[in-house]
Amino acid sequence: MTFWELLQRRIRNDGARPLVTCYDAGGGRTELSAITYGNWVAKTANLLIDTVGVERGELAGLPLLARHPGHWMTLVWVGACWTAGLAVAPAGSDADAVTVSGPEFDLDPSGGTRFACSLHPLGLGLVDPLPDGVLDYAAEVRSEPDAFLGEPAAPEDIAWGEVDQATLFSGAGTPERVAVDGSGALDPYRAVTALLVGPLLGGGSAVAILGGDLAGTIAAERATLVNH
After folding, report:
1. What are the two backbone dihedrals, phi and then psi, of residue 26, each rounded to the nearest 5 degrees?
2. Is 203:17 a contact under the CB 8 Å cutoff?
3. Which residues contact 219 (CB under 8 A, 6 or more apart)?
4. Domains and CATH numbers, the chain
5. What is the CA radius of gyration of the chain?
6. pLDDT tens, position by position, for the chain (228 residues)?
7. Which residue, 8, 27, 119, 168, is the most exposed by fewest CB within 10 angstroms?
8. Best CA proximity match to 91, nearest among 118, 117, 66
9. How far apart are the first and last CA of the chain?
10. What is the DSSP letter of 154?
């Protein structure tokens, strides 16, 4: 099974229920149902294919993933790359298709088309001026269709490292609501599998807590901490 097939199954079966909830370091809370998350993924995948012109099998470098592995916008980008048939890596040095950062602008100029994300809870754009050649993700993605119009990835397309989509998106997954403490150092692969892959496979949901009252948030969200 591919990521896109897995996401579409969740949308059909339980699309209105929360899939990913993110508490950012500033206290902002963003909750995405499977339908809403799917819309963001579709728009971003359309941006990659129609505007950037990526091709299946290319590599997306995501410094965004290295610096902000639990943020909802990171999970949107990871899902969009997988939908478009790109492999993802939490660095931009080897990217040949696209490089995506947060507001730090830590982008490799040789890593294809460069985007920066504001990490705003509502998905708004950047306020500060962008470096030359860097595009504001929020401004660029806004006009893209909510429905994915491209050819979805194939099971044999590489998702991460040498792992293809068929292998990554298999298994039982996570059926419950889980919380991940992202207030400190968090391994990018572990964050993505705990917050996105596991819940999609198992029918559960996830809460990324990037700051604030960890215990209080876990209790309020009725979630189980999985990374301690």
Report:
1. -90, 5
2. no
3. none
4. 3-225 (3.40.50.12780)
5. 16
6. 999 999 999 999 999 999 999 999 888 999 999 999 999 999 999 999 999 999 999 999 999 999 999 999 999 999 999 999 999 999 867 799 999 999 999 887 778 999 999 999 999 999 989 999 999 999 999 999 999 999 999 999 999 999 999 999 998 999 999 999 998 889 999 999 999 999 999 999 999 999 999 999 999 999 999 975
7. 27
8. 66
9. 30
10. P
The residue type found at 10 is: R
Strands 158-160 and 163-164, bridge-based pairing: antiparallel
Residue type for 168, please? L
- pTM for the structure as a whole: 0.97
* Cα angle: 95, vertex 101, 106; to 5 degrees: 85
Which regions of 161-228 does DSSP assign to beta strands (E)? 163-164, 177-181, 205-209, 224-225
Q: Kindly state the tokens that stand for 177.
A: 């609501």
CA-wise closest residue to 192 among 169, 214, 220: 169
Q: What is the 3-state secondary structure (H, E, C) of 56-82?
A: CCCEEECHHHHHCCCCHHHHHHHHHHH
CA 120 – CA 22 distance, rounded (Å): 11
Ramachandran angles phi, psi of 25, nearest 5°? -65, -20
